[in-house]
Amino acid sequence: MIVKPATNSEWVFTPDICSNYVSDDVYSLSSSSELFKLIVDIIQDGISVLDSTLTIKYANTVMKHWYHNKSESTSEKCYQRFHDINTPCEVCPCIKALETKQPQVEVVKYQLDNKDLGWQQVFAVPLLNKDNEVSLIIEYVRDITLRKIAEDNFRDLEEQKSILVNTLKNREHSRDELEKIIVNNVERYVKPSLNYLKKVVKEEDIHMVSGIIDEIIFPLTKTRPSQVSTLTPRELQVASLIKQNCPSKEIADRLCITKKAVDYHRANIRKKLNLKREDNLQVYLETHL
């Protein structure tokens, strides 16, 4: 037998068939038991044949490879040979097949020397005699360790995803609650204070402070049209003063910039708001800012 790694990093078992099974007579080969052995030895899953007492009658190359440190006797029970125990396995599809006379399948741990080496999917197919009694059981064993690892990893990822989604939902809920508190406090405390200050401070100064506060809480209120949200902080300051019907020279003095800079910002604001030549900027800002 030749054992070599395949391109997918799994092991491929290649029996040495050239010297043992060569025959010039194709019919003779096809009608012999040697063909059966050849086929099951080439199969990359484990195959064994048991009698009704779970005694091993045959085991293919893969089964021998998996349990290489065990005796190759064909008179041992499967649980003795493959699992090194003296009683049948707790989860045994072969026993179920004996009881039900129907094919069975189970997923079991692959153990050797009391060590868990992976997972196997075991199929047990009963063969019935003329008296409808089980005479043999074909046991087909597939190594599904990689699949189980992938399933477990996927399950872990799903759990982590669920935890993350719940965490984000909780954070979003907390953020929404905080936004409500901030907006409510502005309405209850800040704006009444500004109304009071209007009595002792110049109204235009109050308008400027009010505009700045509106800018601070805008990310929470989200009440602007989308075009206004494209304005820069300086353009928003200019727009706030235009809204108050301040001329360009006054805006320049308040913001400590030149009148030319104010006119430049005014033009940019009109462009970003998609206003036509005949549209009144101050009226638009009164409605949308």
TrEMBL record:
Boundaries of every PAC domain copy: 101-156
PROSITE patterns assigned to the protein according to its UniProt record, in alphabetical order: HTH_LUXR_2 (PS50043), PAC (PS50113)
Keyword line: DNA-binding, Transcription, Transcription regulation
Domain HTH luxR-type: 224-289
Gene3D superfamilies: PAS domain, Winged helix-like DNA-binding domain superfamily/Winged helix DNA-binding domain
GO molecular function annotation: DNA binding
Biological process terms in GO annotation: regulation of DNA-templated transcription
Signal peptide region: none
UniProt cross-references to PANTHER family, sorted A to Z: DNA-BINDING TRANSCRIPTIONAL ACTIVATOR DEVR_DOSR
Protein name, UniProt field: PAS/PAC domain-containing protein
